[in-house]
Design brief:
- Helix 1 packs across helix 2 and helix 5 packs across helix 8.
- The relative contact order is 0.10.
- The chain is α/β, with parallel strands linked by helices.
- The strands form two sheets. Strands 4-3-5-6-7 form a five-stranded mixed β-sheet. Strands 1-2 form a two-stranded antiparallel sheet.
- It binds zinc ion (ZN).
- The site of zinc ion has 8 residues, from helix 4.
Length: 197
Amino acid sequence: MYEGAIQDLIDELGRLPGVGPKSAQRIAFHILSADPADVTRLATALRKVKELVRFCTSCYNVAESEQCRICRDPRRSEEVLCVVEEPKDVVAIERTGEFRGRYHVLGGAINPLEGIGPDNLRIRELMARLGSGEVKELILATDPNTEGEATATYLALMVKPMGISVTRLASGLPVGGDLEYADEITLGRAFEGRRAI
Ligand SMILES: [Zn+2]
């Protein structure tokens, strides 16, 4: 182990997701030998993300103002709403270029083993949005794994009685995986081939 600041940095980096002790050490020494201007930029980016980024008050995507870029765009359809688990899923779907509606970010999926139930997700907020009557189709784009399927089933049961058409992305997505890991073409096709549930 090292002393002082370098060890503190290794410890902090090691707490990040996907960063093991060896990577933490390699990154810490990379930072130590990097140009001071580069390190300052990194430190500023870290500070700013906590200061400036918040959640869109309509869809709960990440935003730097009251509403996110997508909710502020008047060209996007109000009639189709796509439900995803996380902001990174919005990015994955946007990359396909297949979708011109709006999003609703749940903030996770139903997972009884981890104590995450419907009340821990932004489902109440979703129901409030649907209550306005503008949405004609709800696309359930939760992850193709057990939790994502459970969440989609739960939402379909709640939303169908409201007379809104409910669809789920077509198969072909890697089962058990994360939406964000699907390539653009596969995800784009799954979107086009979505089916009513
Ligand atoms: Zn938004």
